[in-house]
């Protein structure tokens, strides 16, 4: 990852950081979020690099190739699509559902937002906890007045007077398509700051949902996969790979054992070049 991509990911991570400090239980999620944002930043960088070529007519228009997509050694790059990672069936609410029932549905499904569909199952919007909060605020204080009232966005205030999913929802909806590449869906979700994207067919009908967690798992490999590749790499560098103990946690690789210092320097440099490796910790002892 370039310095520019890393800076972009770090800036986005800071904006996503809660006002309170991260707890020890939340640290793994913080690391995963950082790796997800780094992958999205790499995709954004690739997109920006291709835009000038597209405008000049030297390249076909279309989404950029993913710099962070999984590419098994010695094989053709694997391009994952939304259909490969989306969740089906997708839970949705009808446009005429009362806001109280919408609140119950969000709580039962343990999600922060749900797509709103019409009678033909077309996605017409998304209703979220924020929309319900606007409704609750209007119920508690039906009239705007003073400085606080002037700070409210007009549309949000007006929406708070709605009584059904269709009158409370945010529209037009931001959606993904089953044939869309995962990196492009991730870029869409990151740009719109959404945790969930409804997936629709070419007619706008709901066919699934893809979450930020789904995209994260598709964009970056888990620790077990990284460890397997590191151990394979060590096997190509050493006659006896058992001389090195490898552990991986949240993308950070730790090497332990007794090795020649020159070998360690070459080995750590090679490990850092592995996709999705966040850092390398050298706990080896010199022979």
From TrEMBL:
Residues 31-47 have a biased composition (Low complexity). The keyword Chaperone does not apply. Coiled coil: none annotated. Residues 86-148, 169-225 form the CBS domain. Pfam families: BON, CBS. Residues 1-76 are annotated as: Disordered. The keyword Nucleus does not apply. Residues 1-15 have a biased composition (Basic and acidic residues). Gene3D superfamilies: CBS-domain. Keywords: CBS domain. This is CBS domain-containing protein. It comes from Streptomyces massasporeus. The lineage of its organism: Bacteria, Bacillati, Actinomycetota, Actinomycetes, Kitasatosporales.
């Amino acid at each position: 990852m370039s310095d520019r991509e890393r800076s972009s990911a770090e800036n986005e991570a800071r904006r996503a950081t809660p006002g309170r400090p991260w707890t020890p239980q939340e640290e793994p999620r913080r690391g995963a979020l950082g790796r997800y944002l780094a992958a999205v930043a790499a995709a954004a960088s690739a997109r920006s690099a291709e835009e000038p070529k597209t405008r000049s007519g030297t390249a076909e228009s279309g989404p950029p190739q993913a710099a962070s997509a999984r590419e098994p050694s010695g094989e053709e790059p694997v391009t994952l699509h939304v259909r490969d990672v989306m969740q089906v069936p997708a839970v949705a609410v009808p446009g005429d559902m009362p806001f109280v029932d919408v609140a119950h549905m969000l709580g039962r499904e343990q999600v922060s937002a749900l797509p709103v569909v019409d009678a033909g199952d077309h996605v017409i919007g998304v209703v979220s906890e924020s929309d319900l909060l606007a409704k609750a605020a209007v119920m508690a204080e039906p009239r705007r007045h003073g400085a606080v009232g002037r700070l409210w966005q007009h549309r949000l205030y007006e929406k708070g007077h709605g009584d059904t999913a269709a009158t409370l929802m945010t529209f037009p909806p931001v959606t993904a398509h089953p044939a869309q590449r995962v990196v492009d869906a991730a870029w869409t979700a990151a740009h719109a700051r959404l945790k969930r994207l409804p997936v629709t067919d070419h007619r706008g009908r709901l066919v699934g949902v893809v979450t930020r967690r789904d995209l994260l798992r598709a964009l970056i490999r888990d620790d077990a996969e990284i460890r397997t590749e590191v151990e394979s790499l060590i096997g190509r560098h050493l006659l006896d790979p058992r001389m090195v103990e490898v552990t991986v946690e949240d993308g950070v690789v730790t090497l332990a054992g007794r090795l020649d210092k020159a070998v360690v320097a070459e080995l750590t440099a090679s490990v850092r070049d592995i996709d999705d490796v966040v850092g390398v910790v050298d706990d080896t002892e010199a022979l």
